[in-house]
Specification:
heterodimer; A: 329 residues; Fumarate Reductase Cytochrome B subunit; two-stranded antiparallel ribbon; B: 539 residues; Fumarate Reductase Iron-sulfur Protein, Chain B, domain 2; four-stranded parallel beta sheet; 5% strand
Chain lengths: 329, 539
């Protein structure tokens, strides 16, 4: 149900953009909505991070995944169980750039009456392919918002087209992004456990991103648009001298509208894991809580059962057992 | 489990494919052996917890206060403001499912709501409904109303989580179900719905200083039994002190270590070690509990119980504190104590009186783990050891959840084990160290009435033990946790059989050569040492 709902939602979005472009509402779809979406993205993102920041980290709770630093002759695991800030930076870098934790993934099966744990790197591979290509595709698109196009953006673009097939050159990241997003979607549909836990909020972003990738690929290789005019429009957005040239092609507005929806949806969704991963207290703290005191800003005053109360209750038996007491009676 | 199901029957029922019916539409099936008894009002009243009453989990009416929903939601808002972990973990899960089959309760029961992600979704659905904009859309946004049935479902599954954090190791964002379960239980406790098994020890510990409710004279007489046994086995009379002012070190361990087998054998190991060293230390009857069931209840209760350790260290004027073998006790000491009840500026930075080693990693909290202390002694050649005395044991080591994923103590106990016994084999990689499997009974779930759940939750651990038993002939499962020592024996009996359970310091006590000892014929359990099997008959 969640899947169908999300699919229909994305199809409706495509239809809206299609009709909007046909109706020549180009100012709305080419300028107003993109600006609004970016605004919502920035404001929503900041609001969410502030919200997280307002809740303190009362306790020092890293999940330790390696040997602690204790005695000098015991080799300690400086990345999986960091004891210093530098170590934490390393751990976070591994987590954010290489998906360290996901790389540990296993698959549990029952076989011949016993549980067995097999290596299972597919989710890691699919995820890293998805995220890396997403970033590269994002960077490649900077060429539409910069003039002259920086050398490093051109370099990435050239590297992306290393296969040198087709005209224009096939950019491998777009294809991999689409493939990886499709894998993540199929996994949600065909892995019974993942299907069981999936919400509309899990299918929707995948369909949306697939929609963005498909419209982008169509536009580059199949339903050509006037790229010069596209750049005129995007540069107008970037420099706040907006202009909407005629005759760009409907597919571009579909692409742009889906991206706008993606941006506007982002801060209200699970996509915020982009910001959240950096704040996760089980990952971003050094395991040094016995060496450096962690302060809880709301450390509560609590009612205690004092030693005096304890001795008052048990003084006689303590004395009879020869256990020292503070007061004789 | 009077009518205990056979292990193979239980295993054949496990199915990892979830049902077609949506989880929100699937009501809890209250299976006997899967839920604890409810807290009695007298225990809750004693510790000043609200809404204590006579109630029964199996009855339709839980006798919740009229405004229970308001209390729950206000409590939730409060926790969201106090814990970044909670708010963040409610927001950022992408439901990738990496955690799904990492939970021992899911592996053992196949119940999809025991997938960590879904355990969290039980609460996340409430969070969305009442604390997010999108959640107002209801079910399409993954939100649902808080009803009495939903509350009962939360209760059922938050007492089927041992807060072991294995899922958190695999989560790409470090989402920690232990943290979510802790929040869930805080809310449950606002409504007086603690379990009997947790609330009893809480009240006991608050009053007598330990979970078992042992009063000073009982503690003393329990020690007398151990000391008599030690004298019989070694010829050495050990004379520990209690509540002694001016001792250099306060020693704190779980009360289970001086209460029942096999914990007492570990305790006997400590006693021998300290005596042989001539350690200037004292036990305390007031701070006679290292464990902390408050940790399974609320952060405030954890603080109240934990406060006794520093208070007693201050009263007695010791320099620093040494802690015995325990799991959750050490997570509290390592990650919470200094924050809650510190700074311990009345203590000194811990230094081993025998090796001069400064325990730099404990310089603020001033509390050292016994395996750190002992490994350092062995490394510096301060102990005379005869590992042959453990030659009848082929040993493996169970990493406790809390010391593994909340500290990272892996090498210290292994170093000791490899010094005190000759036959040591690891369980498979995916079942030890940070990936270790829970005993199935942690976080206050070691209650008798949920034995079936505990057997299933402990199955992955037992399964790995069985593997090394068959492959290497392992017959002794060592550990550094008092709850493990209490619950692993029945677990192993159920799934594996013929593998003993011991603390690391029990094996150390066997191997330790004491000054002035007689010819040792028995181990600490009173059983003949290897090569001494005929001695008893000759005499």
């Amino acid at each position: 149900m969640g899947m169908i709902f999300s699919l229909v939602a994305v199809i409706v979005l495509v239809a809206i953009a299609f009709m909007g472009a046909k109706q020549n509402l180009l100012g709305l779809f080419g300028v107003a909505i993109p600006y609004l979406a970016v605004l919502v993205f920035i404001a929503g993102f900041i609001r969410k991070v502030i919200k997280w920041g307002q809740s303190p980290v009362p306790f020092h709770i890293p999940t330790t995944c390696g040997q602690q630093k204790s005695l000098p002759w015991i080799k300690h695991s400086s990345l999986d169980n960091p004891s210093t800030t530098l170590g934490v930076v390393g751990r976070m870098a591994l987590e954010v750039l290489l998906f360290r934790s996901l790389f540990r993934n296993l698959k549990t099966d029952m076989s011949d009456g016993r549980a067995v744990y097999g290596s299972n790197k597919w989710l890691w591979l699919g995820s890293i392919a998805f995220h890396v290509t997403f970033v590269v595709v994002f960077i490649r698109h900077l060429r539409f918002f910069m003039e002259p196009v920086p050398t490093w953006v051109n370099a990435i673009d050239a590297a992306d087209g290393f296969l040198q097939v087709g005209v224009p050159h096939l950019l491998i990241t777009g294809v991999v992004l689409l493939a990886a997003a499709t894998y993540l979607l199929l996994r949600r549909i065909f892995n019974a456990q993942v299907k069981y836990i999936s919400l509309p909020a899990d299918y929707f972003p995948l369909f949306l991103i697939i929609g963005i990738a498909v419209s982008g690929i169509l536009m580059r290789y199949f339903i050509k648009v006037d790229i010069i005019k596209v750049k005129e429009l995007t540069m107008g957005l970037a420099t706040f001298h907006t202009t909407v040239p005629d005759g760009i092609g409907v597919i571009f507005f579909v692409h742009l509208f889906l991206i706008s929806v993606f941006f506007a949806y982002f801060p209200f969704s699970k996509l915020m894991h982009l910001g959240g991963v950096f704040l996760s207290p089980t990952r971003n703290l050094a395991n040094n809580s016995r060496a450096v005191r962690h302060v809880n800003p709301w450390n509560p005053k609590v009612k205690l059962h004092t030693y005096e109360e304890y001795e008052d209750e048990f003084r006689e038996v303590m004395k009879s057992e020869g256990i020292p007491v503070e007061k004789e009676s | 489990m009077a009518d205990k199901p056979k292990p193979n029957d239980l295993l054949s029922e496990i199915n990892y494919t979830p049902p077609s019916r949506k989880w929100m539409d699937t009501p809890v099936e209250w299976k006997k052996g899967y839920y604890c008894y409810g807290a009695k009002p007298k225990n809750l009243d004693y510790i000043g917890f609200p809404n204590g009453r006579e109630w029964n989990v199996t009855e339709q009416d839980w006798k919740l206060v009229d405004n229970w929903k308001e209390i729950f939601l206000e409590g939730m808002e409060n926790l969201l403001k106090k814990f970044r972990s909670f708010r963040l973990f409610m927001d950022i899960c992408v439901r990738c499912g990496a955690c799904a089959d990492k939970c021992h309760f899911f592996i053992g029961t196949g119940d999809p709501k025991n997938m960590p992600v879904l355990r969290a979704e039980l609460l996340r659905s409430i969070y969305r409904r009442y604390f997010t904009i999108a959640g107002k859309l209801g079910r399409i946004a993954g939100a649902r109303d808080l009803t009495e049935d939903v509350f009962k479902e939360l209760w059922y599954y938050f007492y089927q989580c041992t807060e072991c954090r294995r899922c958190s190791v695999f989560c790409p964002y470090g989402i920690d179900t232990a943290e979510i379960t802790m929040m869930g239980r805080e809310l449950i406790n606002l409504l007086g719905c603690c379990t009997d098994w947790i609330s009893g020890p809480l009240a006991n510990c608050y009053r007598t200083g330990n979970h078992l409710g042992l009063q000073p004279h009982t503690i003393k007489s329990n020690f007398e039994y151990m000391l008599d046994d030690l004298e019989e086995h070694t010829g050495v009379r050990v004379e520990p002190t209690f509540n002694r002012k001016g001792a250099e070190i306060l020693f704190v361990t779980p009360s289970a270590d001086f209460f029942a087998e096999p914990g007492v054998f570990t305790c006997m190991g400590y006693l021998l070690l300290f005596h042989q060293l001539g350690l200037d230390y004292t036990w305390s009857t007031y701070a006679s509990e290292g464990g902390n069931f408050g940790f399974f209840t609320s952060n405030e209760m954890m603080k109240r119980l934990n406060s006794k350790i520093y208070a007693e260290a201050k009263r007695l004027g010791v320099k620093w504190i040494l802690g015995g073998e325990c799991g959750h006790m050490w997570r509290v000491l390592h990650q919470y104590m200094d924050t809650m009840n510190g700074p311990a500026d009345f203590l000194e930075e811990p230094v081993s009186p025998f090796t001069g080693t400064k325990f730099e990693n404990a310089k603020s909290t001033k509390m050292v783990h016994i395996t750190e202390f002992t490994a350092d002694l062995i490394r510096h050649g301060k102990l005379k050891l005869d590992p042959k005395r453990n030659d009848n044991h082929t040993v493996t080591f169970h990493d406790s959840c809390n010391t593994s994923r909340g500290m990272g103590i892996f090498e210290e106990p292994r170093y000791i084990l490899n010094s005190v016994c000759n036959h040591f084999h690891e369980m498979p990689d995916n079942t030890i160290r940070e990936q270790t499997f829970c005993c199935g009974s942690g976080s206050g779930l070691n209650a008798g009435e949920i034995e079936e759940l505990r057997m299933l939750g402990g199955y992955p651990r037992a399964n790995a033990v069985k593997y090394v038993k068959e492959k290497h002939g392992v017959n002794m499962l060592s550990c550094i946790c008092a709850i493990d020592r209490a619950v692993l024996p029945p677990l192993i009996d159920y799934w594996v059989s013929d593998v003993g359970v011991c603390g690391v310091h029990e094996l150390l006590g066997n191997a330790l050569i004491m000054d002035g000892e007689k010819e040792r014929e028995n181990d600490l359990r009173g059983e003949p040492l290897p090569g001494m099997e005929d001695k008893g008959e000759e005499e």
